[in-house]
């Protein structure tokens, strides 16, 4: 289906380059206007960044105003097209300091989804979320439940891992509300494509983005929330667990709650 002028305008507002219309690109899947993932990502297009916050009415908080419209513009993208769109994104200033974007990793039909915060130094260098010590801890915790981020395992034992933000903030500073709002539509589309049975939201910014809540994690964990109808369990970020070992037991409880939720929904 060809892109509407509105969709193209929104993509360009995000700094996303539209390569070709689907009906002019026979090799592309329906709705895909970007090169497939097997091709190297093209260099970032020299298009302007997203409109600055001052262009919006001051009464519209950026974190609430940007996401729905841009998510609509991304609605036709499949996995390869979405990955390419992220690779070329210049919608916020983080594009200028990143080594590369960090899209996500795992089985595209995984039943589990882990949503983290933002890439750190190792993630920025390797292009994969949750690497380094925190990633190893996450992998060990998942392995204890016979779960893996491998892309070729059975979907019910697979975890797809993505961050809320696809580019590393300089010096690992906290992301701004504007950056989170600009990047959120990519995460929304990832969740739409994956249709996970359970989401594990790890860390403050993942929780704020998915639940629209500023409450501390300690008050949100221990129960099952919902994101677009998908069960969601809040837990601590593995990087925090490395610094606060007593919280590991709570994080393990959270994983067990998530597992019970998935098993419960499968049994219905
Ligand atoms: S952080 Fe997200 S919105 Fe900002 S440039 Fe990277 S991909 Fe685009």
Automatic annotation (TrEMBL):
Segments for region (Disordered): 22-60
BP GO terms, sorted: DNA repair
The entry's keywords: 4Fe-4S, DNA damage, DNA repair, Hydrolase, Iron, Iron-sulfur, Metal-binding
Reactions performed catalytically: Hydrolyzes single-stranded DNA or mismatched double-stranded DNA and polynucleotides, releasing free uracil
Alphabetical list of Pfam families matching this protein: UDG
Record's compositionally biased regions (Pro residues): 37-51
GO MF annotations, alphabetized: 4 iron, 4 sulfur cluster binding; metal ion binding; uracil DNA N-glycosylase activity
SMART domains listed in its UniProt record: UDG (SM00986), UreE_C (SM00987)
Top-level taxon: Bacteria
SUPFAM superfamilies found in the cross-reference section: Uracil-DNA glycosylase-like
EC number: 3.2.2.27
Residues annotated as domain Uracil-DNA glycosylase-like: 103-256
Family recorded in the similarity comment: Belongs to the uracil-DNA glycosylase (UDG) superfamily. Type 4 (UDGa) family.
Protein name, per record: Type-4 uracil-DNA glycosylase
Organism: Rubrivivax rivuli
């Amino acid at each position: 289906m060809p892109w509407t002028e509105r969709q193209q305008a929104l993509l360009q507002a995000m700094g996303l380059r539209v390569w070709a219309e689907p009906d002019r690109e026979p090799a592309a899947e329906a709705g895909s206007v970007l090169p497939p993932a097997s091709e190297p990502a093209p260099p970032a297009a020299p298009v302007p960044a997203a409109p600055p916050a001052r262009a919006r009415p001051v009464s519209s908080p950026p974190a609430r105003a940007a996401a729905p419209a841009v998510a609509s513009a991304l609605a036709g993208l499949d996995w390869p097209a979405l990955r390419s769109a992220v690779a070329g994104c210049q919608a916020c200033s983080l594009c200028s300091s990143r080594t590369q974007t960090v899209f996500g990793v795992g089985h595209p039909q995984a039943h589990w989804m882990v949503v983290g915060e933002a890439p750190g130094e190792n993630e920025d260098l390797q292009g994969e979320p949750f690497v380094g010590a925190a990633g190893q801890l996450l992998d060990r915790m998942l392995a204890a439940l016979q779960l893996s981020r491998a892309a070729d395992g059975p979907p019910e034992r697979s975890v797809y891992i993505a961050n809320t933000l696809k580019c590393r903030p300089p010096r690992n500073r906290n992301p701004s509300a504007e950056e989170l709002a600009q990047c959120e539509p990519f995460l929304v589309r990832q969740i739409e494509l994956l249709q996970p049975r359970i989401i594990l939201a790890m860390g403050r910014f993942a929780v704020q983005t998915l639940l629209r809540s500023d409450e501390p994690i300690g008050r949100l964990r221990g129960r099952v929330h919902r994101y677009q109808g998908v069960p969601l369990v809040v837990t601590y970020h593995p990087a925090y667990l490395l610094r606060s070992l007593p919280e590991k037991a709570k994080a393990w409880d959270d994983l067990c709650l998530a597992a019970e939720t998935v098993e419960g929904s499968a049994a219905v």
